[in-house]
Amino acid sequence: MTVPATPARGYHRPEVSVLLRPADEDLYRRALRGIRQGTGVPLAFAGRLRENHLVLSDFLGARTGGLRGLRVEPGKGVGGTVVDSRRPHGVSDYRAARTITHDYDDPVLGEGIHATIAVPVATRGRVRGVLYAAVRAEQPLGDRVTDVLVRIADGVARELSIRDEVDHRLELLGATEDRLRELRAELADIAAETPPGPLRDRLLRACGKYPAEAPAAPIAPLSPRELDVLGQVALGCTNAETAERLALKPETVKAYLRSGMRKLGVHDRHQAVTTARRLGLLP
After folding, report:
1. 179 pLDDT exceeds 60?
2. 247 exposure class (CB count in 10 Å sphere: 0-12, 13-18, 19+)
3. CB count, 10 Å around CB of 38?
4. What is the domain range of residue 225?
5. Which residues does the UniProt record annotate as the domain HTH luxR-type (predicted)?
6. In the chain, N or C terminus with fewer CB closer than 10 Å?
7. 111 and 241 together in one domain
8. Is 39 a member of any domain?
């Protein structure tokens, strides 16, 4: 009978999708700040695809709460048109626009929106969200605004793709580690039932090639700041993002990361996060 290896005390394998990814709303809020700074529009907002609906969830410059949480169906309104076509779409006079349906006139006009442009955030041909720029007066929103939105949406899409790939690889890594522990347990069981001799010795040598437990404790305790930095790295943050979140300089973040990796006996940030989690130092 196979007995799974017992994890180190205090260690619980995390759900990768919960612990590894930074909150996507942080990414979208950063995008909205970029839209405001790059175009000067008074209102920028975003929606994310949930269960095949675009849900408006992030706002900068809103005066009312009428649009917050609005579920936009594919093909309807400006955002639904973008989701269907996977292309930018805009209207210069929302009230009179004939290129869209008017299912959402009450919340849109209640916010005072006169003109708006929306662009898709898409990865691998699949729309993940929509970014909007809007004005409340007869002010043209031309190609320059569209170009800014497209550039920022492309950046959001790249970041989402990276996060997806990190999650995928760590899920594979977790599955591999579990399987290796299972294989070691199976070999150990067979070795225990094998009479002393060359075959048993060979099985025991094979057992030694597979991980049985979490790694040993680091050569020195990690400092609170080293753990803070590793915690942000575990969320997928870059050094610059970690510095901003922890109010540190990027060079200081690098120094904490290097010292943490040295104490953990690893050589890259991914190994540092994985090892720290095995030791129960990170959730």
Report:
1. yes
2. exposed
3. 17
4. 217-283
5. 215-280
6. N
7. no
8. yes
